[in-house]
Amino acid sequence: MDDWQWDETLFAGAAPYYRRGRLPYAPGLAAALGATLRWDGTGRLLDVGCGPGVLALRLAHHFRTVVGVDPDAGMIAEAGRLAAEAGVAGKTRWVRARAERLPADLGTFTVVAFAQSFHWMDRDLVAARARDLLRPGGVLLHVSDLKGEPTDPAGPPHPAVPIPAVDALVRRYLGPVRRAGRGLLPGGTPGGESAIYARAGFTGPERLVVPGGQPLVRDVDDAVAGVFSLSSSAPHLFGARRAEFETELRRLLRAASPTGRFAARQPGTDIHIWRRPTSPP
């Protein structure tokens, strides 16, 4: 990512598609975290790069206050709508801001979470800022889908979404190199989070895996939403050809499954738990 720079179009237009298009976190995620960390409903959660609040709303009942921060206006608006729909608007606050410029009035937190968002940030800067926002003894959660699991669907009667064919169609419209906002990301997003969190003064990690594997059934609209929820194929990237692309995408999906149904496998969730020491290192 050395030559790539963040810009505000990274997920432009993706917010309405995100919750429907992305596979959900593993069932039991909130219960497993609550039991492991002994949450009692009195703490404060900060979800950095919260998107439409997928993780924050999943964990909201474990906290007195939940704050979500995201630079995309559409994501913040969608998070507010979903919080009202879930009946937790009174305990949630949604702030449009970059992680590198978190407002000074956020207060301190017992938990700071990065759910598949940390790789988009100036990671050393943001990790240090997260440490400052945590109360002594607080925890940082790095949340992602579990890698290395079988991705094939559980079996008949439905086929899997034809990902290689969908990817080929996206490349035909957007070019052979992965798009990301106004730039290109040929090497993908970076790893190595552990060294960054350690440099920032966190201890750990403790790993918690919440298993998936449950069979899911998706439809054509879910599959289309999945494509438009990605930074590499966000709606704005197609410009005037967006409707043309969606027509071709739906035709491809219908050819792959005349019933309009696809089988998928629920991914597991991988959480690395880092702690802020109770005294300075």
UniProtKB/TrEMBL annotation:
Alphabetized UniProt keyword annotations: Methyltransferase, Transferase
Organism expressing this protein natively: Streptomyces chisholmiae
Protein name: Class I SAM-dependent methyltransferase
Domain of life: Bacteria
One example of a Gene Ontology biological process annotation: methylation
Lineage: Bacteria, Bacillati, Actinomycetota, Actinomycetes, Kitasatosporales
GO molecular function, one term: methyltransferase activity
Residue ranges of every copy of the Methyltransferase domain listed in the record: 46-138
Enzyme Commission number: 2.1.-.-
Pfam short name (any one): Methyltransf_25
CDD domains: AdoMet_MTases (cd02440)
